[in-house]
Specification:
two-stranded antiparallel sheet, 57% helix
């Protein structure tokens, strides 16, 4: 577990609850404090945006946002009813996506819940027992699924030149580098997949870029190829700025693994590849 993952786990796992059936959830009012929103009224606005994003993604909102009104003590025996929500990991992820990106803790939440919502099918012990190469396979599979969803959303927005669209995202994240530039820097052969030649941390950064772009295209109902390209570039750049703010390593400075995932799969049939 790297330093960023440890920080995130301490912050967000500390306010996690588990019901009698083993289901994890977070209370919105507790998350509000962690995300440094001083007013419930403003945080409710973020929650409403997240609910709309959930609807736009064709998920059942009641599976992820559950009303949980409760009574609080006011002193001298008085009580007052306040509204609250029980939130799934996915709901927390959407709230982070729609939060104030200027807050450092929002950037941490976006990173944490983007990964954790995709790990929920795995037992934590099972995931931690995976080798670094097996984790690479897992993250690579997530980027494949994420890119498929992003392509569908981009197509609806009017994108036709997908090479240009994806290069816009790479340029934002990699300080102007296109997919071809990244491949050349990594010393890859012609048409060799750059994502297959990334380590886990670099794959996570790209997964973050992919998921954020997809969500923003949906949330802002972006139309027009040029506008979609601009969104992808700006999201990529914002992910880069987030990495810089939290003191992380820029993606172009991360080491390229000695072997591609294609080579590893061919050489080692005993690898645990989780789909």
């Amino acid at each position: 577990m790297n330093e960023l993952e440890k920080i995130n786990e301490t912050i967000f796992e500390s306010i996690k609850h588990v019901d009698e059936d083993g289901n994890e959830y977070w209370y919105a009012r507790e998350l509000q404090k962690v995300l440094e929103y001083t007013e419930w009224r403003k945080f409710v606005g973020v929650i409403k945006k997240a609910i709309n994003s959930c609807k736009a993604s064709n998920y059942v909102t009641s599976d992820h946002f559950v009303g949980a009104d409760k009574m609080i003590n006011l002193g001298k025996g008085g009580q007052r009813k306040v509204s609250d929500y029980k939130l799934s990991r996915y709901a927390c992820y959407l709230i982070a996506q729609n939060g104030d990106s200027r807050k450092k803790v929002i950037a941490l939440a976006q990173t944490y819940f983007a990964i954790q919502t995709r790990k929920h099918e795995l037992l934590e012990q099972e995931y931690n027992n995976l080798t670094d190469d097996e984790k690479r396979f897992y993250q690579r599979d997530l980027t494949k699924k994420g890119n498929y969803s992003l392509n569908q959303t981009a197509k609806k927005a009017g994108v036709k030149n997908f090479d240009k669209f994806h290069n816009a995202g790479y340029k934002g994240l990699y300080n102007g580098e296109t997919a071809n530039d990244i491949a050349k820097r990594k010393g890859l052969r012609y048409r060799e997949d750059i994502l297959d030649n990334m380590g886990s941390d670099e794959l996570i950064a790209n997964l973050f870029r992919i998921s954020q772009t997809n969500q923003k295209l949906i949330n802002d109902t972006v139309q027009g190829e040029g506008n979609a390209n601009d969104v992808h570039y700006n999201v990529g750049k914002e992910v880069r700025n987030t990495i810089k703010r939290i003191g992380g390593t820029m993606p172009e400075d991360l080491p390229t693994p000695d072997k591609s995932l294609k080579e590893l799969k061919k050489e080692n049939k005993d690898l645990i590849i989780i789909k």
